[in-house]
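Record type: ASSEMBLY
Status: queued
Input:
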Amino acid sequence: MITLASDFGTPYPAAMKGVVLQTSDARLVDVAHDFPRQDVRTAAFWLREVLPWFPPAVHLVVVDPGVGTDRAAVVVRAGEHALVGPDNGVCLPAARELAAGAEIEVFEIDLGDPASSTFHGRDVFAPAAALVHEAGVDAFESHEAFAPVDGWVDTSFPEPTVEDDHAEGEILVVDGFGNAITNVPGEVLDGRYGGRVTVNGADAPVEPTYAAVGAGQRLVTVGSHENVELAVNRGRGEAAFDVRVGDTVSLDYS
Amino acid sequence: MITLASDFGTPYPAAMKGVVLQTSDARLVDVAHDFPRQDVRTAAFWLREVLPWFPPAVHLVVVDPGVGTDRAAVVVRAGEHALVGPDNGVCLPAARELAAGAEIEVFEIDLGDPASSTFHGRDVFAPAAALVHEAGVDAFESHEAFAPVDGWVDTSFPEPTVEDDHAEGEILVVDGFGNAITNVPGEVLDGRYGGRVTVNGADAPVEPTYAAVGAGQRLVTVGSHENVELAVNRGRGEAAFDVRVGDTVSLDYS
Amino acid sequence: MITLASDFGTPYPAAMKGVVLQTSDARLVDVAHDFPRQDVRTAAFWLREVLPWFPPAVHLVVVDPGVGTDRAAVVVRAGEHALVGPDNGVCLPAARELAAGAEIEVFEIDLGDPASSTFHGRDVFAPAAALVHEAGVDAFESHEAFAPVDGWVDTSFPEPTVEDDHAEGEILVVDGFGNAITNVPGEVLDGRYGGRVTVNGADAPVEPTYAAVGAGQRLVTVGSHENVELAVNRGRGEAAFDVRVGDTVSLDYS
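Status: finished
Output:
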């Protein structure tokens, strides 16, 4: 199985699929091709949330603002999974989850000069993903295209501060529903469902699910990623809480 | 085969696919993941139009404004098809078509406490769909997760009034082309192609196809769903006829 | 393998897939379903760029502003590939690439009266694509639904003028990143990376890749389609160069 994720929109991902299918019979599964363009951190967040739900697979990941520069192309082996993409950190948060405690190994890809300097998804990453898939996640490095490396670029997310009655974090992403997902662990709301919390100085109910409040009403909940989330039932939390990605979120739950 | 439909956008559907693929080798086919958010009736309309074109399959349907509340999770058996989704009526209009006269049976899903209270697509419906697929549409209820129920939530569409020279209905949905699809059966236009009809007081030609009128010109036609449709050749019927979903449409064809 | 491309958005492509799967086990691969609506030339451009990356396949292509009129439905055989779609030229530029020098052959499709006059993707092209796939690209014409024809509609792209120090062309398409893709062959920039070029009277750097200039800076490059492209690193070239599809582009590189 090969999953595909990018910021390409359409129809560029189809060219990657065509290239893969020239040499592989792998099942192809799209993760998303509408990641915010050239936004490595947001893509890294979503991949970390979604890829761990897959069985062992090769994950082709192309959010690559440095395409054609000297940034490396890499395969990241993480347990029974491999991620193929640019060495810009986009794969690393997901890799740590997928490795499930195993050591992460990174291999640089060298397939010779690519056909283009602007579309390595098609000309480097897709053929590399097919090679990894056909050789096997535990064996691909026997192919001369792959050489182990010791250093690589990582992506980290900001750390929240969590105290007994207060937490301070950041909006990491806003999902398609308008839910503003913070980096504050959901544990701070343990035992508080049905109660209230202060968000950036304003009061809001803490509820286990969106429909616990009326349509259009704000709530604070713990999303499926297990982080604190600012939401509106049948509406957009980002607007109602007036927050954007990168904004500070201050929670008081004394 | 498992089809997938939701109002999730991306990348949440990929998490559902990963979960299914952990326990099933089913072919996966996306129906749509951009249904209007939390709009059960519109999703029910489209599923009724599209799913009957599929061979026997399990249909995973998640438009679920009540996620995490006490609304049940159900499997709807309809002939050789099964639909898996929330008990909010979203599956029922399609199920009636798919049953092809057979009796519809509904089973409540109990997989124990889900991992989240906000993403049952991933934590309840996806694993349930995989179970139904692996056990078979005619046999899944032998699994302890499924218990037959007698009552369920349905979705109905408004009924038009149809007279010899007049029909009154409603705009059910507007498709991506801007075609405004009514609930008035196309039969009212039988034999009228090439003629005229009055729509909400204004005159319009009745034609079998969009390009029968000039680019930018209005027409009334019978769409592929066999209902009367207000359209513009190479333009948007909703704008030209000034109608929105839920608006009344009055047709005079005396 | 059957690829699918259209201007349908969702969920209409799913109906086509259902129909195909009723009679075929083919792998289905989406190329794009968000081509600009009824824009045959843009779709033809993208198909020409993307389809040649696929192994032998049947390509179901539906951008069909003349649906229901007397425009024919055709299969275009191009080497080991077949394209199934309306006879409006949308398949021809891709077919020339896929034929790889072999002669293109065109067959009219006659499946009897279709169920609708507005959705031939579902009622004509999908079943025809399944027939071609099951019979084989080299053998489908033995089926009575297919009859060879001598004439067909083509799509051509405007020809640029290229001189030693000057080229004049046109913006063919703008991709999702905002890159404005011209019809001027990339060869005019050979040996000029690191230099400058004048675009519609204004100076711009010529670089092999987007990140060679600062974020938000303009550049002229050769895209993966091997044409000259007007771009902005991490921004939109169409806006920065103030060009739209169909606009003239004048390049001076003396």
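Annotation: The helical segments of chain C are 12-23, 40-50, 92-99, 120-135, 237-240.
Annotation: The two ends of chain C are 48 Å apart (CA to CA).
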